[in-house]
Write a structure and sequence with these properties.
By secondary structure, the protein is α+β, with helices and mostly antiparallel strands. It has nine helices and seven strands, in the order H-H-H-H-H-E-H-E-E-H-E-E-H-H-E-E. The strands form two sheets. It has a five-stranded mixed beta sheet with strand order 2-4-5-7-6, covered by helices on one side. Strands 1-3 form a two-stranded antiparallel sheet. A hairpin with a 3-residue loop joins strand 6 (about 320-325) and strand 7. The two termini are about 35 Å apart.
């Protein structure tokens, strides 16, 4: 239990006793007056508090941590006997002839039962308070561990994404340098943009959709330079609200997959269409691409694949996404819908 949790527990206990004692004081004060009400309230609840917290701090650990049931039961009986007899003796000494009755002066069966019931009620209540608080703390720690595990898995999957992008980009730059293309400087600029996004934004839980879109645009620009021929490339973001927040690097794998398996230098009629749409509750990505012939599609099998993306979607959007992938002889189509609010 951390320091903040301990402070909250102490405040909760103090709040309970202050509210209880205030209520009982108002009740006693109506018949006994302020001074006697405080005296009566103090004597009664001094023993209640002693019993509750001797059990809380000393006896419950025997039950919870050490599981010494017999020793625990013996100590509870001894504690209850000492508290009840001590309270009966003190009340008899102070209030024996106070009310014109021998109720506090004699230790009758009814009085013993009343003392036992009152003391046991506080012992049980404070114990239940501990069990409830411990349960909340345990659930919180369990949730934190689960989140840490999820974050570790997400970071691992993201780590698989980044080297793949870098590999492709550096490959592009190497090709342009070899042919001494003037476009090499453009590749360096796009590469710096990609690196900046990966270093400063990809580890965040969420980023603005506008940043993810700029990242995709840089990737598309690099692919157009690499392929070095005209092909049909469309990227439509006219129907999207760019101020939405989204998990970083969740869209680009589908775009990259379209290029890896749908566009080739040998296929002059290849094409890629990417479209983003959004409404108040969801973001939709539609990626369509031509399917290149088998001899070209087998060229590059490196990378994480769509299975990696499915894992990230399951971790980042549990039960909050729809992914449909369809293919025929000519067109490969991905339809992804993310529930973002």
């Amino acid at each position: 239990m951390n320091r903040i949790d301990k402070k909250l527990v102490v405040l909760l206990h103090l709040a309970f006793w202050l509210l209880f004692l205030a209520f009982k004081y108002v009740d006693y004060n109506q018949n006994l007056g302020p001074a006697m009400a405080l005296k009566f309230l103090g004597v009664q609840n001094l023993f209640n508090i002693l019993a509750a917290y001797i059990h809380y701090f000393l006896l419950l650990p025997l039950l919870i941590k050490k599981h010494n049931y017999s020793i625990y039961a013996l100590y509870v009986v001894l504690m209850m006997a000492a508290i009840i007899l001590g309270r009966a003796w003190t009340e008899g000494l102070l209030f024996g002839d106070l009310f014109g009755s021998d109720y506090y002066a004699k230790l009758t069966g009814l009085r013993l039962f009343n003392l036992f019931w009152t003391t046991a009620s506080f012992v049980v209540f404070i114990s239940l308070l501990k069990f409830t608080i411990d349960r909340f703390i345990l659930e919180g720690e369990k949730k934190a561990l689960e989140n840490e595990k999820l974050n570790a898995e997400l970071n691992y999957l993201k780590a698989q994404v980044n080297p793949h992008f870098l590999f492709n980009t550096l490959h592009n730059l190497n090709y342009l340098a070899q042919v001494k293309s003037d476009q090499a400087s453009d590749v360096v600029v796009k590469l710096s943009n990609i690196m900046r996004y990966m270093i400063y934004d990809s580890d965040k839980r969420e980023v603005l959709l506008s940043k993810e879109i700029e990242y995709v645009k840089d990737y598309l620009a690099l692919e157009r330079i690499r392929l070095n021929h005209d092909f049909d490339l469309q990227f439509d973001t006219s129907g999207v609200e760019v101020d939405l927040e989204i998990v970083p690097l969740i869209l680009i794998p589908f775009v990259e997959n379209a290029f890896k398996h749908g566009v080739s230098d040998a296929e002059k009629s290849s094409w890629v269409k990417v479209k983003l749409e959004s409404d108040q509750e969801s973001l939709t990505l539609i990626v369509e691409n031509s399917i290149i012939t088998k001899q070209h599609s087998d060229q590059d099998k490196s990378g994480f694949g769509l299975e990696n993306v499915r894992k990230r979607l399951n971790l980042s959007f549990p039960d909050a996404y729809e992914l449909t992938i369809k293919a025929d002889d000519k067109v490969f189509r991905v339809h992804l819908k993310l529930m973002i609010k």
